[in-house]
Amino acid sequence: MPMPPKTTPTIPMALALFASRECRGIARALANTKDRHAGIHAARKGLRRLKSLLRLGADTFGGSLAEIEARIGKLATGLSPLRDAHVAATLAHHLAGPRPSAAWGDAITTLEHRRDGRLVEALHKDPRFLKRRRAVRDLGDLIERLPWRALKRGVIEAALDKQQRRVVTAEKRVRKAATPANLHCWRRRARRLRMQLQYWKRVLRATHKTAHHRAKHDKAATQAMSKLSDALGAKQDLRALRAQLHLLRKPAITAPLVAQIATELKKYRKL
């Protein structure tokens, strides 16, 4: 008996499907027992992607989105200290090179102990991350009930244009005052736009739609936002590591390491 032909999904169906897949991916990442740190990092990234996808329908979803974003924020905030501790240790390894100095070796050991200690404490409070995984499943149920059918092409493209304007506004603030808060806002908005453009490309491919007049614009914007987001992220991670080293309260050991970080930060001086 021949199989029935697959039905091409509509744009709303594709968006809802990608949101559902993201939820399942986050749950799988939290269940990763082989490499807990990699799982936490993947879950954090998944939560950011999910939020960026849902924001494409912010005007349509209205108040229904508030509770969902609050739950996403709670999950992300709970994972942030674990992710930040892991990034600090990993970045320290990278800066130390294949043959770490005694100072870097001491700092790396301390950062790894702090990272692993935070993970043990988190797993003690939430064994196997079962509470978090259950929260993700509940989140998925709420997302399924959103009015996805109302997300037509014009709604999505208007949301992309709006986010593009938000990125430009954030950049102007940074040009006037490059404070950590302004830089963080710029990075967050650029990263969200990059994720949204990437999702939109996937949706168009899944629905067999063409990008029409937006094709070149979206491709160029995706590349620009990827480059910008990566650079701002690297700058933020370096600053975070510097803060972690200061917390060690060993200035005699960490002074040359902080100086090395300052040299690295000069690469991003124009940002």
Determine the N-to-C terminus distance: 61 Å
According to CATH, the fold-level topology is CHAD domain
Helical residue percent band: over 70%
Number of strands: 0
Rg (C-alpha, Å): 21 Å
Biggest β-sheet strands, sense, barrel: none
Overall geometric form? globular
What proportion strand?
under 5%
Name of the top-level CATH class? Mainly Alpha
SSE pattern, N- to C-terminal: HHHHHHHHHH
Low-confidence blocks of residues: none
Rounded mean pLDDT score? 91
Q: Tell me the number of helical segments per DSSP (H or I, 4 or more residues long).
A: 10
Structural class: mainly alpha
Features of the shown structure:
single chain; 271 residues; mainly alpha; 10 helices; CHAD domain
Topology, pairings included?
Elements: H1 11-30, H2 36-55, H3 58-61, H4 64-96, H5 102-125, H6 130-144, H7 153-176, H8 180-206, H9 215-247, H10 251-265
Helix pairs in contact: 1-2, 1-6, 1-8, 2-4, 2-8, 4-5, 4-6, 4-9, 5-10, 7-8, 8-9, 9-10
Any overview of this molecule?
This protein has 271 residues and is mainly α. The chain has one domain: CHAD domain. Helix content is 79%, strand content 0%. The protein has ten helices and no strands. The model has no long low-confidence stretch (mean pLDDT 91).
Summarize the structure.
This protein is mainly α. Helices cover 79% and strands 0% of the residues.
